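Hey L., structure's done. Input below.
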Amino acid sequence: MLSSISPFGERARASRWWLTTTAYVVSSTLGGLAIGLLAALVGALVPQGWRLSPTGFVVAALLLLVGLALDLRVGGLELPSWRRQVDEAWIGRYRGWVVGVGFGAQLGFGVVTIVTSSTTYAVVLLSLLSGTPWVGALLGVVFGLVRALPLVLMARVDSRERLWEALRGVALGARVADIVARVGLSLGATVLAIAPLTMATWT
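Output:
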């Protein structure tokens, strides 16, 4: 998708890259907000005494570790996911801003397209665990915004040569992002595991 939505590609389709990208980033952010808020509202239905109990935190920590193991394909297992991706046939068929809104909303919502990292599920899990709408919304906004930012890196792509250069940078960045995601899952699981001990100390 990144190779298709760039100033170079949008110019060929008589579309404005900045408009498509703005629509994409805003829509992805709103999609993230929606999934985080929805998960938090569902979590609010679970009694707080269970969600914020030591058992609740430990279960959440274990689920993050399971997600990490699936990301690493331990035992040959893979992360469960839809096999659906955004329809790239939209590009060229619809106006750029329509493509931006459609793609952004789906990718920001996270779970309606192929899930490549368990961090997507972690956002849903933590939002659910919070049971607090503003916390879920905030987590979702950060998720949706961060997921959309790689498209902004295409801003200088105005030729085929710069397109290939940008894609090489994205490939390198993806490897770094994988490492950051796995470290984040490990730290998140650790924090959740020790949280009950800290809460007991406070009380």
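The mean pLDDT is 86. The two ends are 51 Å apart (CA to CA).

-- N.
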